[in-house]
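User: Before I run my own analysis I want an independent prediction to cross-check against. Here's the chain; please return only the structure tokens and, at the end, one sentence I can use as a sanity check.
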Amino acid sequence: MAESKTGLRKPVFTKVEQLRPGTSGHTLTVKVVNSKMVLQKGRPDGPQVRQMRIAECLVGDETGIVIFTARNDQGLGNWKILSHALDLMKEGSTVILRNAKIDMFKGSMRLAVDKWGRVEVTEPPASFSVKEDNNLSLVEYELVNVVEG
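Assistant: Structure tokens:
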């Protein structure tokens, strides 16, 4: 029997312009252009009140920009990671998004990281300048049913 070699694979980095609706497993290096809190409220969760926070961050690289939704309401397993991610998403910082996915919100793309993903700040900051005139979140998509026959 041949032994199977199980090890970590090197990540394949994706550029923002390559993102498409319904895709997942992306690893990107992006700069945070801006960040704003869109929801912040306490929520009773068992014996203690938990803070629910959602922020929308405009992130990008040299090929384009997209809205990244950082939230901490997707389950206890990732609550600390994403709560921490909200604090990492400061304007001007460079982050690596691992295992990111594209969610659709009102017909436009939003980049997100769930409990299987990770947000890491990189030092030193990336040297590229963000291409702000190619905002993929401004493109509206429509779900079309194709009838074959």
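Sanity check: The longest strand covers residues 24-45.
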